[in-house]
Amino acid sequence: MGVLDSLLRRNLERTVVNARNLAEPAARKALRRLGVDQQQPPSTLPAEERPLHRELRAQLNQLESFDELVEQCAYEHWHRILFARFLAENDLLIHPTAGVAVSLEDCDDEQLQREEGVNDAYDLAARYAAQMLPAIFRPDDALLRVKFAPEDRLALEKLVKELPEAVFKADDSLGWTYQFWQTQRKKDVNEAEKPAIEGSDISAVTQLFTEHYMVRFLLENTIGAWWLSQNPDSKLKRGWDYFKTDIPHDHSTYPTKLQEVTFLDPCCGSGHFLVDAFLLFQSMYIEQGLSARDAGDAAIANNIRGLELDPRCTQIAVFNVAFVAWRHGGYRQLPDIHIACTGLPLKGTRERWERFGQDQKELVAAMAMLHDTFSKAANLGSLIHPPGMFDVAQEAKARQFTLDNLPDTERQKMLDLASQVKWNALERLLEKALAKEATKEDYYAGVRAQGVAKAAQMLSDRYWFVVTNPPFMAVTKGGDDLKEFCHDNHPEARKDLATCFVERLRAFAKPRAEYAVVCPQNWLFLGSDKKFRQKLLKEQRWLAVVRMGPQAFSTPMWDFNTALLCFSNTKPSADWSFWAIDISAKRKWEDKAALLREATAVSEPAEELEEVNA
């Protein structure tokens, strides 16, 4: 199948940019017709549509503004149509009762359309796609019941129809869609005279699709290296173009069973690392004798995990993993896909969230802690680091469970109660509490809380492999919450979000586990980063350093120096050496990829990097 060539990628970008320009005015018009921008529905609104007004107002109360609801509505309607064609072009659009694949031509059947109460083939296909993907398009989501004007809906469908079939067959198309959706937003944020970049603007500015060769290098030389340490005669190595035999791994403390090896991408974006990690793990299970279907299910259930700041990007990552699993094993009900959004802040007061606990004192305390931990989640995302449970002994060390405005005795009582609640029990307790809630506003808040509980558990876990392309952004460009957090929790790395994430990856990694990252290259030599560099050299084993330099990306967002780095979460010995290569002299990303694929490198003593860069 391969990846998009430059012409197809530009075509897709134009289409997605145009789609957002069409979808947002269409959503605004439809929502205003329902009177969602007003507390009370218009007097002209029919009685049967008034419950929808109330539901949409409840969702609006969980957001910052009406504009945010408009963007969400536009996003969901466009992507439901787009995802439908992705499924249809790959024979994966499944009729909900017959259980067979249907084509877009099949969806043109008037009887099928009448049965579903829709108007045309794409409307029906989108309905089927939403039923297949309830984790992305929630059946109870009022936004999907908003009806665009016929001319607006047809204009969006026309854009999807005009995309070439090859776009929907390429392996990386889904990964590009959200970056292109954010194109204008990124430009607007960068050009605006704003004092700080906060909330959803962080992901808009930092979103950058990771090049395939970077993904393959990091995964083959982490997960792949472990597999070969357990299976030295494995034939899988033949397809690993970027694997290097002389990177100095030590997997002696790793599990020997494949199902026990966990992988996390904490800044998973639209899921590029997750998709390739899925394919790696699936191929390993197949080599052990499982069918493609069972191997894919095992990879999802046991191995791959993802976290992401942006809830919309999280949705695409979920679809991306489901899509690759269906393409490589056929359509079926998949195990739960472990991808959660870390950027959903808990709105409202702490007291309001404590109400979810009802008469369960432990849950009341846990909800209070959740509120304080995640009230700034929109700015912190996967940097949040809760302990494995609400552990009183670890609370001071974590420095993130505040409850600062409570008297000391009451605060200690809350900590003692919360320490009895484990993360893996929190979702079950929340479900029980939510069943008692009466109002729609509380219901939508509860749906968000369940997402936070899942994210909290994943944030507190530790993994055998952690690999990501984190956001690149100077912390000084962020708001006060981000600046304060990075100053307190990452004092040596606080200059840039990317270097703060290098430290966060270390915390995600189990002892002696490996973590790897795409990051800016400048901290490897700047004097202002010397303390951070020295800290990592003294405390962590460096496994590989690839200096890529500028123009390592194929998109216009390429003009900065980048590097690929691999570490082991353990202290190095006095004579430790790491693998290193400099490909920065090449001025085309294709040439960099070719050199990285073909070249060998020498291992250098770890102290030499500091001697050169001091």
Q: Percent of residues in helical segments? A: 40-55%
> How many helices?
27
Low-confidence stretches: none
Kindly state the mean pLDDT as a whole number? 86
The major sheet is characterized as: 9 strands, mixed
Walk across the major sheet and give the strand order.
3-2-1-4-5-7-6-8-9
| Overall 3D form | globular
Percent strand equals 5-15%
What gyration radius follows from the Cα positions, in whole Å?
25 Å
Tell how many strands the DSSP assignment holds: 9
Tell me the distance between the termini.
46 Å
Would you tell me the structural class of the helices and strands?
Answer: alpha/beta
Describe this structure in words.
By secondary structure, the chain is of the alpha/beta class. The chain is built from 27 helices and 9 strands. A 9-stranded mixed beta sheet has the order 3-2-1-4-5-7-6-8-9, sandwiched between helices. Strand 2, helix 15 and strand 3 form a beta-alpha-beta unit. Helix 11 crosses helix 13 (272-287), helix 13 runs parallel beside helix 15 and helix 21 (423-434) packs antiparallel against helix 22. The chain starts with 5 loop residues before the first helix and ends with a helix. The mean pLDDT is 86.
Task: Present the secondary structure layout.
Blueprint: H1 6-33, H2 50-60, H3 66-89, H4 110-116, H5 121-132, H6 150-162, H7 165-169, H8 173-181, H9 183-191, H10 200-206, H11 212-220, H12 223-230, E1 263-265, H13 272-287, H14 292-303, E2 304-308, H15 311-327, E3 339-341, H16 350-354, H17 361-374, H18 377-380, H19 392-398, H20 408-418, H21 423-434, H22 440-460, E4 463-468, H23 480-489, H24 497-508, E5 509-520, H25 530-539, E6 541-549, E7 562-568, E8 577-582, H26 589-598, E9 602-605, H27 606-613
Parallel strand pairs: 1-2, 1-4, 2-3, 4-5, 6-8
Antiparallel strand pairs: 5-7, 6-7, 8-9
